[in-house]
Structure formats: structure tokens, C-alpha cells
Amino acid sequence: MEKIKMTTPLVEMDGDEMTRILWQIIKEELLLPFIDLKTEYYDLGLKKRDETRDQITVDAANATKKYGVAVKCATITPNAARMTEYDLHEMWKSPNGTIRAILDGTVFRAPIIVKGIQPGVSKWKSPITIARHAYGDVYKNAEMRIPAAGTVKLVYTPADGSAPQEVVVHEFKGPGVVQGQHNLDASITSFAKSCFEYALDLKQDLWFATKDTISKKYDHQFKDIFQEIYEAEYKERFAEAGITYFYTLIDDAVARVMKNEGGFIWACKNYDGDVMSDMISSAFGSLAMMTSVLVSPHGYYEYEAAHGTVQRHYYKHLEGEETSTNSVATIFAWSGALRKRGEMDGNADLMAFADKLEKATIATIEGGKMTKDLAMITTMEDPTVLNSRDFIVAIREELEKM
Ligand code: NAP
Ligand code: MG
Among 109, 303, 309, 391, which is best to mutate for testing ligand 1, by the most ligand atoms less than 8 A from CB? Predict the structure, then answer.
């Protein structure tokens, strides 16, 4: 069989621990036998990040700007324990944070649905994709303990020297707490654009919700920016694509999500997205079945699994024990990136291969072969539990049948 040719490279970002092991097996078994794989390789494993003083992460993000599409393996975000474990020069920042800051994107997370792994909500038939605004609000707040009676104000001092504006937050009669939050029109705008673009990409409806009835300036600004951009740039394109933009209050959105069949994108403010993405992933079955894609408003895409490096399994692996780690989300990161590469390059064979790879993965599980995490939650009787490698080999067998 002739291998599928690629014209433009993918940016390949390797990672850490158990997912790094899976990465290698996926390439050996599912990609290299079928594709003349062209990638520009960046090793974002913690050792290499430390050696390069994290320059490699910046280089990988810049390469994504150059080529448009990247696929990333899960990586360690260092903490105190990792400082000793890897003898690090510095507690390097989260690579995902660094990459997101350079590409200025929004992260979309969607569950992978297979028969036999039933969503906790029986109404749900299709994936619900969560888009989380990844800037500001409570994550960049300023807060204070108020020890005793006194007044707290918000004060804005214009840089041009004009008169300050202020508003009283609260006249405290006794102890309490206070918090100041902010966001930026530019960040909200790029969030909105990424969401509208991705909805067109997937041909799915876009929902957005805030609490604008209570927060008449802050949340209302989000609502207004989304609406302005929609009217000015997307209304016609949405109509042509046969999809809708739907705005409602956050509590109404939550109630409707539970009664809906799914198959739409739900844009969330930062905190709502943090909370709702965990609800969606556990309700659809498993974090190991969630894909994640960073979409920049400039049209760059970075695909990855939503889970981490599965450290506990890696330590078992190092001790020579067998592991049964789920590679589905990592495989879908590759298929997502290959499909997008194919779309950008007009490479129909590559797009068809991405579809096949996903079908083979799903068929393997639906045929009763799966990793331990899925075997524990499936409604199928007597599933075959495979180890990390054998599960990927079983997918290869499906792929070869197609
Ligand atoms: P994790 O790697 O997602 O794993 C947490 C637990 O979830 C695992 O111990 C395992 O449960 C289960 N799990 C996750 N993925 C699985 C898979 N593919 N197959 C089977 N089970 C899976 O999260 P963590 O342990 O909190 O973090 C480990 C490292 O990953 C940290 O250094 C963190 O910084 C990093 N991280 C990276 C990213 C990223 O690069 N995007 C995201 C999150 C975390 P059992 O042990 O019960 O089997
Ligand atoms: Mg969370």
C-alpha cells in the first residue's frame, strides 16, 4: 500500500511521562505505516524545556504560527515536587499557558462518544463542546480581607491625567472580604471571534451565556461584544451554514443543556468554563475521552488530549508493571490535526485517513476491546481489557481492515 503524502509539516510537540510513551506507540502503529509523516518536531518534555530554559516551548508556539497546525502531547507543569524530581533550574510555567499566550486562543473541549459508554444524562446523544474564555475574571483578581468597619471603593485613575472615577463597593460595619475583577475588550473580542470561527468550522450552533441581568456592566459587556461581532461579521455566514447563535442567561443555559440532545458549542466565561467542562467530561464518561483544541482568532490550531501525563500509570510502567492507559484522546488529537492539515492543504487523502483513524478507534471499543478505565464504566458485558500497547495494536488491526 502506498503511503499518504503530506505537503506541509505538522508541528509536533512531544511531552512527558505515560503520554510520551503512548505518543511513540501511536506513531509507530497508527501513523508511520500509513502516512509519509511530515512533522517539525519539538520536544516539550520537561528535561528539554529545562535544558533550553523553556525556549523550546516558545519556538514550538512560533512554529505553529508559521505552519498553522500543531499536535501536542500532555506535558508536566512543574511544581515543588517536580523541581527536585527533575533537578530544574526554575519552576517553568505551564507550556499550555505559554503557547496560549503566544497564539491568543480559546480552548474547545469535546467528549468522544462511543456506544457502550453512556452519558450520565440520558438525553445527550451528541457531544457538547465547551469553549472556555481563558483570561481574567476571578483568575486574575485582586482581593482583600477586611478586618473591621470601613469603606471599600473601586477607583479608576485615567492615564491621561483626567479626573478619577470611583464607586463604593461596600460600607463595611464589621469584618468581611472584597474582590476586584477585570477583563479586556480585546480579550473578549478574540474569544468571541474564535467561538464564531469554530462554530462555522464544525457547522454547529453556538450558545453563549452570562449573568448580564445582575452584572449590568461587567457581564453585559461580554454579551454586547458577542452580539456586535455576530451582527457585523458572522450573521450572514451563520445563516449560509444553517447554524444559529443563541444567547441566554447562564442559569437558563444550564437548565437547557440538561434537556438538550447536544451537538453544539457552549461558550463560557472563564469560571463557568472551568466548572462546566469538568461536569461535561465526567457526565460523558471519562477525562481520557475528551479532546481539546486551541483555536486562535488568527486561524492557528493546536490539538491535544484534555488529560494530563497520567503520572501514576507512568510510575507503574517504570517499575515494569503492565499499564492500561487510554490513548483515545491522544489519537484524536492526531486525527484532528491531520484532518485540519489536510483541509488547509487540500489533501483529501489525509482528511480521509483522519476519519478512518477515528472510526477504527471507535470500532475497536464498540467491538468490546478497551482499556481498563472504560471497562469499568461500560454497559457492555465482558469487555476485553487490553494493556496500553495492545489497545493501540487492536486499533491498527481495525484500520488495516478498512
Ligand atoms: P492526569 O494525568 O489527567 O491523571 C489523573 C488521573 O486520571 C490518572 O491518575 C488516571 O486515574 C486518570 N486518567 C487520566 N488520563 C487517563 C488516561 N488517558 N487513561 C486512563 N486514566 C487516565 O492528571 P494529574 O495526575 O493531575 O496530572 C499529571 C501531570 O499532568 C501533572 O504534572 C500535570 O501538570 C500534567 N497535566 C498536563 C496537562 C496538559 O498538558 N494539557 C493537563 C493536565 C495535567 P487512575 O490513576 O485512577 O487510573
Ligand atoms: Mg476545573
Answer: 309
